Amino acid sequence: MSVPSYISSATVAEEIEACQENCKDFNWLISPLDEVNQLFTVSMVSPIDQKEFIIEFRFDNYPETPYLIDFVSPENKQVGEFSSYPLYQGDSFFNRVAQGGVICHPCSRKAYAGYSGIHSDWQLVNWRAIAGGLINLNAILDTIYTRISNKTWYRGKMV
To answer: Which domain of life is it from (predicted)?
Structure first.
């Protein structure tokens, strides 16, 4: 079943509104919604080394399926390159696959079969049931920012 684009856009707009306080507190910059291509980006900077991270969220068929999340190079605007992803040694949330980096969590469609294939055992149907608390934009952004702010485990960008 497909979610009409206007429903996906309205849902995402509500989620963006819900994370405005964190945007102010942590200087996250959210682009305007591109409703034609159903995407937006979020820019955040690690307070440890001031490296910028740009995260692209594709929201076609959201919330029935999770966001398709990828990192974008601030330098060359390429999507999914290893060097666009954080290097974090505390867990496998940011992972490497042959095609580039991936968020290895049910909140990211890229981790499923048919995308990176890292988790061919996961099903998009009822993705929220396996995603724990990462079922909305604010929780996802908070999780990313927490990792790029962790002095113990954060190591800059993947190479």
So the answer is: Bacteria
Asked, as a colleague might, if the bond just before 4 is cis with ω within 30 of 0, I would say no
Query: CA separation (Å) from 116 to 20, 41, 52, 120, 151?
Result: 31, 20, 24, 9, 29
Q: Give which of 151, 3, 43, 9 is closest to 89, Cα–Cα.
A: 151
**Which residues make beta-bridge pairs with 79?**
72
Domains of the chain: 5-157 (3.10.110)
Question: b/e per residue, 101-128, with b = 16+ CB within 10 A?
Answer: bbbbbbbbbbbbeebbebbeebeeeebe
69 - beta bridge partners? 57
pLDDT in tens, 96-139: 887 789 999 999 999 998 887 778 888 888 899 999 999 999 99
> How far is residue 126's CA from residue 19's CA, in Å, rounded to a whole number?
24
Query: Quick check: pTM over 0.90?
Result: yes
